Amino acid sequence: MVGMSKPAAIEHYSFTRNCMSATLHSGIPLIDLSKPDSKHLIVKACEEFGFFKVINHGVPLEFITDLESQAVKFFSLPLSEKEKAGPPAPSGYCNKRIGANGDVGWVEYLLFTTNSCSSSQRFTSVFGDSSEKFRSALNDYISAVRKMACEILELMADGLMIQTRTVFSKLLMDEQSDSVFRLNHYPPCPELQALKDRNMIGFGEHTDPQIISVLRSNNTSGLQISLRDGNWISVPPDQNSFFINVGDSLQVMTNRRFQSVKHRVLANSLKSRVSMIYFGGPPLSEKIAPLPSLMKGETSLYKEFTWFEYKRSAHNSKLADNRLEHFEKI
Ligand code: GA4
């Protein structure tokens, strides 16, 4: 049928049908970090959505705009230049391929492990004179966002009435914290205008393996989250706010009281989307298990494992796999 076949340039990508519910929902939880009731609202949002938006976050605007302009500058370079900063193992550039198991998306990105952030020679060779500017924008941004993530995790512990309020945040503050940072660029895809009833996947559906993820994007739409009933909803972009995802490790630590949120990004036909995501993870040797204070006589739903074991298994999976399944008790 005319208009239904994919133009050659995009035939290798995944598509999803337009769904009405994706445009109608506007009930994403909003947390104002300056308000005294935020700890209860954070717990409620994690229980019901595994996702929320944060305002009055305290991250200086200058850190955000500086890093965004560095990212835009990098992504504007010719592909051959950007590829000199690849592959992303563990830190570097990649175009279209996501992970090592065959996933692809309409996206290019830079990945960094935060404890060896941009130390690589490859970055210096691509950024030349401006590599120091890039490095310092990255460090400023990551430190400020990690601080906010820790504040949120401490409010969460308070809301859950856990005595040691640093029980989650200390894992991100640990020198050995295995956190990751990602800069994504979703280029516009004009061919999509011909395909009215379908959307193309920029980054396929998945949950994040870590404890918590903090996302900030420019004002281009694309992010969708899956609700508990399986419906997808579009998250209206807001460049002045942050979006928080519950990760798989937090799901385990709360013995599934919180559930990690399934999310994806759709490509846009006209506008370029730039997002920056901090994935707060524990040290590799950390045992990931339900906190005894949250168990109240329940038994653990999970087998014992370390973050190293979970991460290794995640990296052997495809994006859309249910990674926690192998660690559930039968
Ligand atoms: C999803 C969350 C982070 O972006 C990430 C991703 C990682 C990668 O891009 O290399 C993974 C994905 C993420 C989970 C499953 C595996 C590994 C791609 C993939 C197919 C950096 C992470 O930590 O896990």
Keywords:
single chain; 330 residues; alpha+beta; 8-stranded mixed beta sheet; 5-stranded antiparallel beta sheet; 28% helix; 24% strand; globular; binds gibberellin A4
* Average residue-wise pLDDT: 91
Small-molecule binders here are: gibberellin A4
- Please describe the biggest sheet, giving its number of strands, its sense, and whether it closes into a barrel: 8 strands, mixed
Form type: globular
Helical content stands at 25-40%
Structural class: alpha+beta
Distance between the termini: 48 Å
**Widest β-sheet, arrangement of strands:** 2-3-11-8-13-6-5-4
Low-confidence stretches: none
Query: Could you tell me the strand content as a percent range?
Result: 15-25%
How many individual β-strands? 15
The run of helices and strands is EHEHEHHEEHHHEEEEEEHEEEHEH
Rg over alpha carbons: 20 Å
Question: What count of helical segments does DSSP give?
Answer: 10
Sequence-ordered SSE layout with sheet pairings:
Layout: E1 15-17, H1 21-24, E2 30-32, H2 38-48, E3 51-55, H3 61-75, H4 79-82, E4 92-98, E5 103-113, H5 121-127, H6 131-159, H7 169-173, E6 180-186, E7 198-206, E8 212-217, E9 223-226, E10 232-234, E11 242-246, H8 248-253, E12 263-266, E13 273-280, E14 287-288, H9 292-295, E15 305-306, H10 307-315
Bound molecules: gibberellin A4.
Gibberellin A4 binds next to strand 5, strand 6 and helix 10.
In short:
By secondary structure, this protein is of the alpha+beta class. Helices cover 28% and strands 24% of the residues. An eight-stranded mixed β-sheet has the order 2-3-11-8-13-6-5-4. It has a five-stranded antiparallel β-sheet with strand order 1-7-12-9-10.
